[in-house]
Design a protein that fits this description.
alpha+beta; Pnp Oxidase, Chain A; binds flavin mononucleotide
């Protein structure tokens, strides 16, 4: 974004446009995000795929296994931080929001039905993610390739929706860096301000 044409409204719209594009474009640098949850001793970070973004509600979604550590942590503290980095355009976006876990609903079932078998494998391990095992193994059921795909169980598949409450945009530039923050108030209105980079 050119500096002379910059406004807070434009940056906010740019965040929404980028997240919208990232859902459908495999190559988009914001398709992968690092998410942070609050652990017992420290923040816990990991990479996930951005699966949906509703621009009107500023709501983003990722998929995961209901048995995973991140779900335990979100059940204890629903606040989530998401970090995006675009190396080419030198843009970092940081998002903080409140999550809701969607599990075993018509929506999760219909997504599961249309999911490719390769993607389904991520939610079919016999033991919970992070379980210790004695050998190197994908921990998938042995009959996975012969079993009728329609019979694969979606019991561990869930979606995490994050309602964005705060967003921060940082754009590195040769002459100057630009940093802006947006916060949603209790009435759902966004207010932005510039920050010292
Ligand atoms: C490129 C990449 C994409 C990933 N996408 C997801 C994802 O969409 N959902 C997910 O649960 N884990 C995904 N993972 C695995 C997580 O980073 C993490 O290792 C796993 O979910 C266990 O996290 P937890 O134990 O902190 O819950 C991905 C890993 C990589 C490297």
């Amino acid at each position: 974004m050119k500096k002379d044409k910059l406004s807070l409204d434009k940056i906010q719209a740019e965040i929404a446009r980028n997240l919208t594009d990232a859902v459908t474009s495999r190559e988009h640098p914001f398709r992968l995000m690092v998410i942070g949850t609050i652990g017992m001793q420290a923040a816990n970070l990991r990479t996930v795929v951005l699966r949906a973004f509703q621009a009107d509600r500023f709501l983003l979604t990722f998929y995961t296994d209901i048995r995973s550590q991140k779900i335990n942590e979100l059940q204890n503290n629903p606040n989530l931080t998401c970090l995006f980095w675009d190396q080419e355009r030198q843009i970092q976006i940081k998002i903080v929001g409140k999550t809701e876990i969607e599990h075993n609903t018509q929506h999760t079932q219909s997504i599961w039905k249309n999911m490719h078998i390769g993607a389904k494998k991520a939610y079919l391990t016999l033991s919970a993610p992070s379980s210790i095992q004695n050998t190197v193994s994908n921990n998938l059921p042995e009959n996975l390739l012969t079993i009728d795909e329609k019979l694969l169980d979606d019991q561990y598949f869930c979606m995490v929706h994050c309602e964005i409450k705060r967003m921060e945009w940082l754009q590195l530039g040769r002459s100057a860096h630009i940093r802006a923050e947006f916060q949603k108030n209790e009435f759902g209105q966004w207010k932005g301000h510039w920050l010292v980079p």
